[in-house]
């Protein structure tokens, strides 16, 4: 289809179908819709927006229509993204299924797995969590020790995961398990299972931001049907790494901030005081100006990266560079916003501070360079795989 | 004078260090925080702190105090920083005590003994906006009978809701941003018309917004000169900035220490993560920053104690530099801890929070560096 025609039609459809409330900037985590069996909608508009987008397959515009996607080409997907941004429309569905598991299933899943899981992800019916990290396996993820024993028609899973984001809210987990204790990378398999299975328990962990979005997750004789193995037995590391690339791409998007084109605007809104007072500090203003340069350049980088990725031209390790840069940028962003907010922004639970919104977001941003693989690990990957530097 | 602690100061440091570590460790902060303690600090601990003589470090011997200097106050503050101890020492023992140094004998006789015996704590009410601009004073003091009537608002007042005496900067003349026309007053915490609304901050401390609605004070509540309070205020701010800088060095040092301990123990890829050069270099860099900050802080303290002209400049350097070091220590600390650094169970996040509040107090690094640039003529 002619791209300009597609753009005109898309714009008209979005105008007609995106509820006004869904064009407001996101203020807190509650403004995101995560879907799932126990989905919580913060407003009827949020639910309506998800339904309308899902019906068109536009929660996952470039997935095939057979799996609930929109079947759009890379060029059309980009147009859709641009029009959504131009309208200021919120993402209809935030989901680890979309940003992480989906791409891995499209590449490594069986036809049955795709048909079972992808449409439910696209419609926001099942919420997924990621069972990768363990107490002894963080940066050295391949050291994981959660065991899955072959019991004929099923695997028997025992062990513990940690930092499992939203494990207490998720319906299913994609999980790395050890199926061969004698091997390291070549003894790992990739399993999918229902969090309602017998033998699973979760314990929330409190973050420094005061929230508890992640958990310790325990498996005690959990039975997982054999057909829930993704990819080959003991070849899960390949799937895991492919998925990590997509996770890193998603996390790099934090570097784009809340979509506002300048940090100056966000800084003015940071607290209730007379706006100009906060920007009359010449050093802060200079730091913000330089930040805006980096942020605008990073927006261009993001566009280039996605275009190259969809065209199969991106370096396989490029998501590491994107993740590194985007998360470091987001941390700077919150540091500057805290400076702009001054003593008001230090308040932790006052109404005026939105329940300490700025401070909590600042603290939460510190995890960006840890989750999904630390900055140090990304830099190691860039040095080794992109720059080809020698190892010791 | 050599730029290191002398023997007496080392003795004092050792006793402050063991006192704070024994009685006021991070667990103490956690218990106050988790109980949502409405005072903001432990009055029991404050009593014992006072018994050590610490509240009188800066009170002249003639007035019954220890008659020591900013170096000694800083020694105690560094330990407060190291242990994240909620304490009214900075606002009372440094801020109010320094202000009273310019007060009438009557005011001094009223408050020094109360501070020395732990009966009173006090604070400063300087800021009106969300950023520190000490000359930006709109709070008005008008002549009324033999005294003054104060009306206006202050914010970010540490311990404001429990302070027995509040040193308030007010405008008796001039425009909002002018340095002339500033007058300082000692206001009773329970004065009619004074309301303090405490807010919990991210480090669990309590800072208040103060509203003064026609608060009446006597003429001898004035500290320094009427309309000429700016120089006195600058002196108080120098003392408080040096004190906050010392506390920041303690925060930075402890944040580094627990981080080093962690990366020595935590193993990944079959080795301690502290064996990776990527972390070693950054740890070594952090150490360097903290050492430089510590030198700048001691220099400023010594120059204040010597009443050296231009010591205010050293103080700007000290507080700005200590802010840089502490924020680096917290940032690197959380990052090097990995996932556990983001959890409330580990202490490193508490250092990040306290460091952030101290950074804002009496001017952040940007503000102070800008002031230094002005003093340097650009
Ligand atoms: C908010 C948040 C959400 C998360 N969500 C999930 C989730 O949903 N599912 C999941 O499975 N995991 C999740 N994680 C876990 C995350 O992936 C790990 O925390 C991360 O991989 C780091 O592992 P670690 O915490 O064990 O740190 P460690 O590996 O112990 O690292 C400690 C420090 O050592 C450094 N280091 C380690 N190895 C090297 C090296 N070779 N060279 C240089 N430096 C090195 C690290 O960079 C870090 O600074 C989450 C983490 C956070 C903070």
Write the layout of secondary structure elements.
The complex is a heterodimer of chains A (392) and B (378).
Chain A: H1 3-17, H2 44-55, H3 74-87, H4 96-108, H5 111-122, E1 128-131, E2 147-150, E3 154-165, E4 172-178, E5 188-194, E6 200-205, E7 214-225, E8 229-230, H6 236-252, H7 263-268, H8 275-279, H9 282-310, H10 318-341, H11 357-365, H12 375-386
Parallel strand pairs in A: 1-4
Antiparallel strand pairs in A: 2-3, 3-7, 4-5, 5-8, 6-7
Chain B: H1 7-23, H2 26-34, H3 43-51, H4 70-83, H5 89-100, H6 105-116, E1 122-125, E2 140-144, E3 147-158, E4 165-171, E5 182-188, E6 194-200, E7 206-217, E8 222-223, H7 230-265, E9 267-268, E10 271-272, H8 277-305, H9 311-337, H10 348-360, H11 365-375
Parallel strand pairs in B: 1-4
Antiparallel strand pairs in B: 2-3, 3-7, 4-5, 5-8, 6-7, 9-10
Helix pairs in contact in B: 1-4, 4-7, 5-6, 5-7, 7-8, 7-9, 7-10, 8-9, 9-10, 9-11
The structure holds flavin-adenine dinucleotide.
Largest sheet composition of chain B: 4 strands, mixed
Question: What small molecules accompany the polymer chains?
Answer: flavin-adenine dinucleotide
* H/E series of chain B: HHHHHHEEEEEEEEHEEHHHH
Q: Number of helix segments of chain B?
A: 11
Any guess at the CATH architecture of the largest domain in chain A? Up-down Bundle
Question: How does the major sheet of chain A shape up?
Answer: 4 strands, mixed
What does it look like?
The complex is a heterodimer of chains A (392) and B (378). With 392 residues, chain A is an alpha+beta fold. Chain A has three domains: 3-122, Acyl-CoA dehydrogenase/oxidase, N-terminal domain (Butyryl-Coa Dehydrogenase, subunit A, domain 1); 128-234, Butyryl-CoA Dehydrogenase, subunit A, domain 2 (Beta Barrel), CATH 2.40.110; 239-386, Butyryl-CoA Dehydrogenase, subunit A, domain 3 (Up-down Bundle), CATH 1.20.140. Helix content of chain A is 43%, strand content 14%. In chain A, the strands form two sheets. Chain A has a four-stranded mixed β-sheet. In chain A, strands 2-3-7-6 form a four-stranded antiparallel β-sheet, with no helix packed on it. The termini of chain A are far apart. The mean pLDDT of chain A is 94. Chain B has eleven helices and ten strands. Chain B has helices spanning 7-23, 26-34, 43-51, 70-83, 89-100, 105-116, 230-265, 277-305, 311-337, 348-360, 365-375; strands spanning 122-125, 140-144, 147-158, 165-171, 182-188, 194-200, 206-217, 222-223, 267-268, 271-272. With 378 residues, chain B is α+β, with helices and mostly antiparallel strands. In chain B, the strands form three sheets. Chain B has a four-stranded mixed β-sheet, covered by helices on one side. A four-stranded antiparallel β-sheet of chain B has the order 2-3-7-6, with no helix packed on it. In chain B, strands 9-10 form a two-stranded antiparallel sheet. In chain B, a hairpin with a 2-residue loop joins strand 9 and strand 10 (271-272). At the A-B interface, helix 9, helix 10 and helix 12 of A face helix 9, helix 10 and helix 11 of B. The structure holds flavin-adenine dinucleotide. Flavin-adenine dinucleotide (FAD) sits between chains A (129-133, 138-139, 163-165, 214, 367, 370-374, 376-377, 380) and B (266, 268-269, 273, 276, 278-279, 335-336, 338-339, 342).
């Amino acid at each position: 289809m002619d791209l300009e025609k597609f753009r005109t039609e898309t714009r008209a459809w979005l105008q007609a179908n995106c509820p006004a409330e869904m064009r407001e900037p996101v203020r807190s985590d509650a403004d995101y819709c995560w879907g799932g069996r126990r989905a919580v909608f913060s407003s009827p508009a949020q639910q309506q927006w998800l339904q309308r987008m899902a019906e068109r397959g536009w929660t996952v515009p470039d997935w095939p229509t057979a799996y609930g996607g929109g079947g759009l080409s890379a060029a059309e997907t980009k147009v859709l993204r641009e029009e959504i941004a131009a309208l200021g429309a919120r993402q209809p569905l935030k989901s680890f299924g979309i940003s992480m598991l989906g791409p891995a299933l499209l590449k490594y899943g069986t036809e049955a797995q795709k048909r079972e899981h992808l449409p439910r992800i696209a419609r926001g019916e099942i919420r997924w969590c990621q069972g990768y990290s363990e107490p002894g396996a963080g940066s050295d993820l391949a050291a994981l020790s959660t065991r899955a024993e072959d019991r004929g028609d099923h695997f028997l899973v025992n062990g513990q995961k940690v930092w499992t984001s939203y494990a207490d809210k998720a319906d299913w987990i994609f999980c790395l398990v050890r199926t061969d204790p004698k091997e390291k990378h070549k003894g790992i398999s990739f399993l999918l299972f229902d969090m309602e299975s017998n033998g699973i328990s979760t314990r929330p962990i409190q973050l420094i931001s005061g929230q508890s979005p992640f958990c310790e997750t325990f498996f005690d004789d959990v039975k997982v049907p054999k057909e829930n193995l993704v990819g080959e037995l003991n070849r899960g590391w390949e799937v895991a790494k492919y998925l990590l690339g997509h996770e890193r791409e998603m996390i790099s998007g934090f570097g784009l901030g809340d979509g506002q084109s300048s940090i100056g605007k966000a800084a003015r809104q940071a607290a209730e005081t007379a706006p100009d007072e906060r920007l009359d500090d010449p050093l802060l203003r200079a730091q913000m100006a330089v930040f805006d340069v980096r942020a605008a350049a990073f927006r261009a980088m993001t566009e280039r990266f996605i275009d190259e990725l969809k065209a199969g031209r991106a370096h396989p390790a490029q998501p590491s560079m994107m993740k590194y840069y985007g998360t470091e940028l987001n941390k700077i962003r919150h540091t500057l916003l805290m400076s702009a907010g001054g003593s008001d922004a230090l308040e932790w639970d006052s109404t005026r501070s939105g329940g300490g919104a700025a401070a909590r977001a600042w603290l939460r941003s510190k995890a960006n360079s840890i989750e999904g693989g630390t900055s140090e690990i990304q830099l190691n990957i860039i040095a080794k795989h992109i720059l080809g530097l020698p190892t010791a | 004078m050599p730029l290191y602690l002398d023997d007496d100061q080392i003795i004092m440091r050792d006793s402050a260090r063991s006192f704070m570590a024994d009685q006021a460790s991070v667990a103490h902060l956690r218990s106050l925080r988790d109980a949502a303690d409405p005072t903001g600090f432990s009055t029991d601990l404050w009593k014992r702190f006072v018994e050590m003589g610490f509240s009188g470090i800066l009170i002249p011997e003639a007035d019954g105090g220890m008659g020591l200097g900013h170096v000694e106050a800083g020694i105690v503050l560094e330990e407060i920083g190291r242990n994240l101890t909620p304490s009214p020492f900075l606002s009372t023992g440094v801020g109010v005590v320094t202000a009273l140094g310019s007060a009438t004998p009557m005011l001094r006789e009223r408050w020094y003994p109360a501070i020395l015996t732990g009966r009173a704590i006090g604070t400063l009410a300087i800021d009106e906006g969300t950023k520190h601009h000490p000359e930006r004073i709109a709070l008005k003091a008008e002549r009324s009978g033999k005294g003054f009537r104060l009306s206006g608002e202050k914010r970010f007042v540490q311990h404001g809701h429990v302070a027995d005496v509040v040193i308030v900067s007010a405008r008796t003349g001039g425009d909002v941003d002018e340095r002339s026309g500033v007058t300082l007053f000692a206001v009773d915490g329970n004065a009619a018309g004074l309301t303090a609304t405490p807010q919990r901050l991210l480090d669990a401390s309590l800072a208040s917004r103060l509203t003064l609605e026609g608060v009446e004070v006597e003429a001898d509540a004035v500290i320094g000169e009427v309309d000429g309070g700016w120089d006195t205020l600058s002196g108080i701010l120098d003392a408080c900035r040096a004190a906050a800088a010392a506390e920041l060095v303690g925060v930075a040092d402890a944040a580094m220490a627990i981080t080093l301990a962690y990366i020595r123990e935590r193993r990944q890829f079959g080795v301690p993560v502290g064996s990776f050069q990527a972390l070693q270099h950054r740890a070594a860099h952090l150490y360097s920053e903290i050492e430089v900050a510590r030198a700048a802080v001691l220099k400023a303290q010594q120059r204040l104690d010597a009443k050296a002209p231009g010591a205010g400049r050293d103080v700007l350097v000290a507080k700005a530099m200590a802010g840089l070091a502490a924020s680096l220590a917290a940032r690197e600390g959380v990052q090097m801890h990995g996932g556990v650094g983001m959890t409330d169970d580990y202490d490193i996040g508490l250092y990040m929070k306290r460091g952030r509040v101290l950074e804002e107090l009496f001017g952040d690094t940007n503000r102070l560096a800008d002031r230094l640039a002005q003093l340097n003529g650009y």
